[in-house]
Design brief:
Number of domains: 1
CATH topology: Jelly Rolls
Largest sheet: 9 strands, antiparallel
């Protein structure tokens, strides 16, 4: 499979080595990739992974959440004015935090365009801003389309941090056939068997998990979202940080919008 030449950011040879396995997995398409980033670039990301400042963390006590909106909705909007804040997740998580980029890391925010140019986020390092630019590149999207066989586009991304006591209940996002979730890990010295990696289960029960990563040092779990794409995180029992970058890719149409949103709307009408 021919890949687009990369800029020493992602180790595409390692990624494409799992393409056939990913596309043939049933009932959940998934792959676990080690050495996802080129090691030198990864080390720069690892060393400058944004630190959580508790004095600036947004919680439900520090912001008014209107009825019908979640804290994630509010904090992603607040992030358009500055990316300094981590938000405390309050849905299926505990001790879980999310951080957005200023200038465009989800559909609510403005994205870089050729005429507007790229707006660097001063709260991130040069390496993280370089990765931000690369996530919007044609090269990245082209390679993930070849990897998955799905005509995806970048939908959103954010940093995800879990601390001691943190977990994520097993859940399924939607039944869209074209949504891909990537969890990229930035935690060293993770011991085999310790909880914290995003596991895969064919339903919404932890006991039926089919895979749980134990190496979280420059690794990635990639799965196609759908009715059998359950996933979650077992509770972290040690005084460690599970650092990750969550990326969502999906099919998009200028007429109907994002594919998973359209499908959810159709299901509500049934």
């Amino acid at each position: 499979m021919k890949m687009t030449k990369n800029l020493n950011i992602i180790n595409w040879e390692n990624v494409f080595a799992h393409s056939k396995t990913f596309q043939e997995q049933k009932p959940v398409k998934w792959a676990f990739i080690e050495e996802f980033f080129v090691r030198d670039f990864y080390e720069k990301l690892y060393e400058t992974y944004p630190k959580k400042d508790d004095s600036k963390t947004i919680t439900s006590d520090s912001v008014n959440v209107p009825p019908g909106m979640s804290l994630v909705n509010i904090t992603s909007k607040l992030a358009t004015g500055g990316g300094t804040n981590w938000s405390y997740e309050t849905t299926d998580d505990a001790n879980a935090y999310r951080k957005w980029w200023t200038g465009g890391s989800n559909p609510i925010q403005p994205k870089p365009t050729p005429d507007r140019g790229f707006v660097e986020d001063p709260t991130f390092s040069e390496s993280w801003n370089q990765l931000y630019r690369y996530l919007f590149s044609d090269e990245l999207i082209s390679n993930f389309r070849k990897f998955s066989g799905i005509p995806v586009k970048l939908k959103q991304f954010s940093l995800m941090l879990l601390t001691r006591g943190g977990y994520q209940l097993p859940h399924i996002h939607n039944v869209g056939p074209s949504t891909m979730i990537l969890m990229l890990f930035f935690s060293k010295n993770w011991k085999k068997g310790d909880p914290g990696g995003t596991y895969i289960t064919p339903d919404d029960t932890e006991s039926n998990m089919v895979f749980e990563p134990s190496n979280l040092d420059n690794t990635a779990i990639i799965f196609q979202d759908g009715p059998h794409a359950g996933h979650g995180v077992r509770q972290i029992t040690k005084d460690v940080e599970r650092r990750a970058l969550s990326i969502t890719l999906d099919q998009y149409s200028s007429e109907t919008g994002w594919n998973d949103t359209r499908i959810k709307s159709e299901l509500r009408e049934i």
